[in-house]
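question for whoever is on the cluster today: can someone run the full assembly for these? two chains, 834 residues total. i dont have access anymore since they changed the login thing
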Amino acid sequence: MRETYRNERKYPFCPGCGHGLILDALNRALARLQLDPTQVVLVSDIGCQGLGDQYFAVNAFHGLHGRSIAYATGIKLANPDLKVIVLMGDGGAGIGGAHLLSAARRNIGLTVLVFNNFNFGMTGGEHSATTPEGGVTATTRGGNLERPLDLCATVAVNGAGLAWRGTAFDRDLPDVIADAICSESFALLDIWELCTAYYVANNAWSRKSLIESRAALGLAEGYVHRESRPEFAHTLHAAAAETTRAPGLRPAPLAPQYTSALDRKYTIVLAGSAGGKVRSAARLAAEAGVLSGLWAAQQDDYPVTVQTGHSISEVILSPDEVLFTGVERPDALIVATGEGRRAAARYLSALTDASVFFVTPEHRDLETPARKVVLDVGASGRGGKKQHALVMLLAAIRLLNIMPVEALEAAIRRGRRADVIEENLAALAHSKDLIKSCLQNG
Amino acid sequence: MRELIDGATAIARAALDAGCTFFAGYPISPATPLLLHMIRELPAAGGIAVQAEDEIAAISMCIGAAMTGARALTATSGPGMSLFSESIGLAIMGETPLVIVDAQRMGPATGGATTPAQGDVQFVRRGSSGGYPIIALAPDSVAECYTLTLRAFDLAERFRCPVFLMTDKEMFQSLSTVALEDYAHPPVRDRAVAAALPPGAPGLRSEESYLPWRFDPIDCPPPFSAYGGPHIVRFTGSSHDEHGFLTKEPEKVGRLNEHLWRKIEDHVGEIELARADLQDGSRTLFISYGVTARAMSKAVTEHRARGGVVSALTVQSLWPLPERLILQTVAALSALERIVVAELNLGDYCAEIERIVYRWAARNRLPAPEIVGLHRLDGELITPAQFVELIL
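^ ran it for u. tokens below:
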């Protein structure tokens, strides 16, 4: 039987300060529950209450202002069986508001004791998120104009398992703290108390003022909220334990099995539209290159609004390792759509008479010193527009004789979905016919 | 055998191979792919991955989890690194093993969200109050993204401090070909764990069975004990004594702060990594790191193929500054007249090279080589041609 969870150190708080009362209540709650001290972590915030963890013979974590709930979340997620208790002031609740809301929404099993004395006691009595309207503080000398934050209502409406409001003088505080710890939910206790150094002095407050002020603000007392929701940390661990998916991140390696006649670094830029399979087409070409013993690299460019506008991929193929991936002048440029055309201006203007420019009939008006190859990819009506960029890229690679068609087919067959493989094989066949008609037309 | 892979995938794979058990992150370009990989893969590997409410929460959760025994990882880019700043200081003070991936993008502010840059080099070193040292590694290939991630976890465990992996948008998101044999697998050692002391051992308080912050000797990280383990542990971001109690006693505060820098600065030899590619008779030495070092290698290959002579040094461990390796390289080149330091920033590392090379020259009564910064800030990579132009 452990009678106390306190150590021998004496509290450092001002005479009349409520912090010691709350810590004593916490000690009684721990003694009632007879928790193993190595399985309890007190996470304290910044402010006078942040000194509190040092007076207990359990684990302690004292971090930065307002972040106590975030540290506590990490501790609970790493070991859901620990009893994690957060000590924070009204200041920490204010600056750490996003963490407070998120923790409530998750219903992560933390017990949060808010030492609410309506001002910043450690730094000189400045106003906080819970200072009542009209409250005089070092930074609201004419009276506070901001509405105080209703902590309990806020966490209650956002999914907390338990919310309670009372004062440091309440005799049942140890019971409520023990109840909160046992609830295995996000439990917030808004504990009102007196800061004798500042708030009491500036506002002529007394113990009675706590009750009067609460009534005047129309805030509920006692158990404000209680609901049963799954606890976040345990739920995540249970879900992880049931995860049986095969490890990803390790696609089947590419075994070079074909040969390429390419004797220098060669860059192809494919310019099309969002949703036009530009990136996947480029990846297919790059993989086919690797299967042909080449070194490939690919960079993509597209607007942040991913389902609209251009999509451009640069594919670099080289007999040697590709060390520099900047593309100043592509060897071949493929323009598959109007959006691709607009976004490819800088590549187009860099082309020389040594470059090759593949283009659909709609965009054959583009002037360039490059050798222009018009691919009437839409003429046959096969495959649909979505396949045009891929068909043009496959046709270009075949016309340029960069790698054997078997490598392209092998890369297509590496796909995971049978319907996509079929679609892409059809594109490969389409590219063959396109080349034929292109050559016939000179 | 080869594969086509991006840096984010290589880093995620290495994190799993390193035994990473906790990831918390927040979406930001170009670091998001790592968040997605970890959310998808970590649970199957027995770990926990979460999207936090902001970057401050992400790194704070990682610190809490790491002190509960997890191997923790987070990732962000410039604006998120700004939000990490206060917690980086906490991880330094609380001696928290933590790997932070910085997929650098162009700054300042929102800058270029999908533009490669190397502008966070001084930011990670000096971006937290107090100016205490951290470790930062910079892979220059996708294969090295894998290798140096393993190394980052090892160093984080060994030195109990945040370790940064400095990449960029280009390395992180672009696909390149990697030969499988180029993945090196350095070991990831476990952090030293505290043994129980007999009850009543000298210096112990009644509730203690070990001293969480005893540095013995002063340059040695203290053995670790996780929350929930056999010992009661006190962690604090404030100046503390060996029990973890707040203290203002100058002797104890001074000893703590000396420990925090000496545990890294006295062990540079265990951390430093650089790859020298030297050629006798070189009048020019290139120094670079990360994605820019790739263009440097290309320039060296091209120049030598044309019969030219030039040397290059790729720095893989940016912090602590690998002064010995850099000066050793400089000293080895007897004909050296010019050092070119190339980076996608305003000269973050060039200033460090100038400082140590000028001091080295003065000490050895030698004329210092000319030091030329090669910088680019328009969102494009430094080209091999830009390197070649500067060769003497």
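summary bc i know u wont read the tokens: Chain B has a mean pLDDT of 96. Chain B touches chain A through 81 residues (CB under 8 Å).
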